[in-house]
Design brief:
Layout lengths: L2 H11 L3 H11 L1 H23 L31 H36 L1 H16 L2 H20 L1 H15 L3 H14 L3 H8 L4 H9 L4 H24 L11 H8 L8 H27 L2 H4 L2
Length: about 300
């Protein structure tokens, strides 16, 4: 055996699942570009307020409607608030909404999908519940729920925290259905595999089979759904804020900034366009990351 063959054999012996996933993900140019862009956006909104220290809510009436300058890189709005500070603050809120709502929808969708796929007697009721949620017009339903409960939650938790809990909860509770269907389909196939049947034959309880054998093998669709769920939550929150039913006007989000500055698009087109570009870049980058993860976690594409 030659030295090259020995080296190749050694490298093959040390290959791991996540190593192969990373190699395939890295070869996806769109996914890498999306990861870089999304990482830069997260870094900017996380670190930016410590560098650009102007308060996003500070009203400087003497500098209202100011153009771009060193003091105000993106100018000011009609109240004298710094637009760059508002975009940074709005990015924090929009990303927090996206990540939190994604976690809620992912937990619910995974739970429903695993239970429906593994337990035959739960399949019918859970899938009919999923069909019911899929048949609902989600955006009108979301708007009605926000209008009905926003005042109650604002009074209980404060104007910002109350509306944050409401929007995140409603988005999470109305966006789990796709994850549930995907996970259910994978679980239906997995529970007929030899290793699951062998675990059943030796008396392994269903709880242990699900945690040890089923859940690790449905990780691929769950991770892809997680990336797409972030984009969906950001778009939904932006739509609600654009319609004026989201966060309070003095608590910026990207959608809120587009809504507030739409009337100034003729005089200052950069005001609504820049937060709209931020939304678009975030959603596109996350979608590219989801495409890369889907390909990287597919064993047929990895050549395994």
């Amino acid at each position: 055996m030659t030295d090259a063959a020995i080296v190749e054999q050694g490298e093959s012996a040390h290959r791991s699942l996540w190593g192969d996933v990373w190699v395939q993900f890295r070869s996806h140019k769109g996914a890498m570009a999306g990861t870089i862009i999304f990482g830069l956006i997260c870094l900017l909104v996380a670190v930016g307020p410590y560098i650009h220290t102007i308060d996003a809510q500070y009203l400087d009436y003497r500098a209202k409607n100011a153009g771009m300058s060193w003091a105000h890189p993106l100018g000011t709005d009609n109240y004298g608030r710094d637009m760059f500070a508002q975009i940074l603050q709005g990015g924090r809120t929009s990303l927090a909404v996206g990540l939190t709502a994604m976690v809620i929808s992912l937990v619910i969708g995974t739970l429903v999908g695993v239970l429906a796929g593994y337990f035959r007697w739960l399949d019918g009721p859970l899938m009919r519940l999923t069909d019911l949620f899929l048949a609902l017009p989600l955006l009108p339903l979301l708007l009605v729920i926000v209008m009905l409960f926003r005042d109650t939650l604002r009074a209980a938790f404060g104007p910002e925290t109350g509306i944050f809990l409401l929007i995140v909860g409603v988005i999470g509770l109305t966006s789990w259905m796709q994850t549930a269907r995907i996970v259910r389909g994978d679980v239906l196939a997995l529970k007929e595999r030899e290793f699951v049947l062998a675990a059943k034959s030796i008396g392994t309880p269903p709880r242990r089979i699900i945690s040890r054998h089923v859940m690790p093998n449905v990780l691929s669709p769950i991770m892809v759904s997680a990336t797409l769920g972030i984009a969906n939550a950001i778009i939904t929150e932006s739509a609600v804020s654009f319609l004026g039913l989201g966060f309070p006007p003095d608590y910026p989000t990207w959608g809120q900034l587009v809504f507030q500055n739409q009337n100034f698009i003729d005089l200052h087109p950069e005001r609504p366009i820049i937060p709209a570009i931020a939304i678009s870049l975030t959603v596109i980058s996350v979608n590219f990351m989801g495409d890369g993860l889907r390909d990287a976690l597919d064993p047929r594409i990895r050549g395994r």
